[in-house]
Write a structure and sequence with these properties.
The chain is mainly alpha-helical. The chain has 10 helices and 2 strands, in the order ααααββαααααα.
Amino acid sequence: MIDLLLDPNAWVAFGTLTVLEVVLGVDNVIFISVLVSKLPKEQANTARRIGLSLALIFRILLLLVLSWIIALTAPVFTAFGHGFSWRDIILLAGGAFLIYKSVHEMHAEIEDPHEPGLQQQAKAALSGIIVQIVIIDMVFSIDSIVTAIGMAQHVEVMIAAVIVAVGLMFIASGPISNFVVSHPTTKMLALVFLLLIGVSLGADGLGFHIDKAYIYVAMSFAVLVEAVNIINKQ
């Protein structure tokens, strides 16, 4: 352990992995923020804390079973000329879930009644929200850990980076959730972002890599435009 603390390569790997985990965790934070926006404030805080705690637990557990994670990238069957691994299958399922959930929430935002009494009846149960957070946590955890395995040599460095990244996500999740609740139009932007991430995950599962930088740049521009609109309304 002392050797790692004195190793500059370990510190470089730690910094790089922390930034990577934060970037990959943005998707997770936005998904959780959208889900908990349907709950009363106290339950929303509980669901957010549970969701991010599960994200941390999943990532640490997966790091402790590296051999199993590495095996996830080995093809288990071939279809249409592409070898599908368990990682591909999980990404496909997670992408499909994100696409379905995003479209469903968009439909609910536009079509569902918005009277206060009916809104209260439509609010999802806390347990149902947590189950959905668990599902997508598993997808994002596997995707980020498989990426991290190729960037560091020591499990201790990976775990430290994950803990710091999830801590930063925990700090940022509250303000992001409050902002989404206070500005309903941003929720639609978040849902579009999640839809694009779902398509990206599905494409990765099919063997077509889409650079997320394109998605982040496009959404950053959309967020900038929305920020200008919000400022003008104030």
